[in-house]
Design a protein that fits this description.
By secondary structure, the chain is α+β, with helices and mostly antiparallel strands. The protein folds into two domains: about 140 residues, no CATH class; about 40 residues, no CATH class. It contains three helices and ten strands. The strands form two sheets. Strands 1, 3, 4, 5, 6, 7, 8 and 9 form an eight-stranded mixed β-sheet that branches. Strand 4 and strand 5 form a beta hairpin. The longest helix has 15 residues. The site of one zinc ion has 6 residues, from loops.
């Protein structure tokens, strides 16, 4: 079973630091067992280790700044040879939660953090959609088992990483063959 959208049982809430006293930054962390894989951009990502989520919460003027850190290990088929490939994912995203009414157009144009408009900033804040978004945004779009993966033979389907299968893969289209020849000469030059 694979999921394509925010899991319904996900719930990430953070406490806001006290503005008058107490620490400036409040940390929260979770460890999530991901039993289901995620299908995104036609790739299926399975989890080899729990998803670690850490949030650092602080005030920035009238807004709340949340840094979301994610760490896990994923398994995904290489886009060229389909071999399952492990990917160590480690990423962080910055979100700025501002009251809907208080945001000036100027602030909205700042681009170094993702702006989230909220109706209230009380003592707790729901960051669940942003944890999901951070995870999705950090999934590799063209996962490869290695930089120079040779892919599959279009004739017999064997992995060309294991050596040449001996098939004749020469193109029959002479125009394309000429193009490939020019390209090859370019590379060799
Ligand atoms: Zn590959
Ligand atoms: Zn072949």
């Amino acid at each position: 079973m694979a999921i394509t959208d925010l899991p319904s049982d996900w719930s990430f809430w953070v406490h806001l630091p006290d503005r008058e006293e107490g620490p400036d930054v409040v940390d929260a962390s979770w460890q999530i067992e991901m039993k289901q894989s995620i299908v995104f951009a036609q790739e299926e990502f399975s989890f080899l280790s729990p998803l670690q989520v850490v949030a650092h919460v602080s005030w920035a003027d009238q807004s709340v700044m949340v840094q979301i850190e994610l760490e896990t290990t994923l398994s995904v088929p290489c886009v060229r040879c389909l071999e399952l490939t492990d990917i160590a994912l480690q990423t962080h995203f910055m979100y700025l939660y501002s009251l809907r009414d208080s945001v000036t157009s100027e602030r909205e144009q700042e681009s170094d953090e993702h702006l989230v408009l909220v109706d209230a900033l009380e003592n707790k804040l729901n960051i669940t959609p942003q944890v999901w978004e951070s995870l999705i945004l950090s999934l590799p779009t063209n996962p490869l088992c290695r930089e120079d993966c040779k892919g599959l033979c279009p004739v017999c389907g064997a992995s060309l990483n294991d050596g040449d299968c001996g098939c004749n893969r020469e193109t029959r289209d002479p125009r394309l063959a000429d193009l490939l020849k020019i390209k090859k000469e370019d590379l060799e030059a």
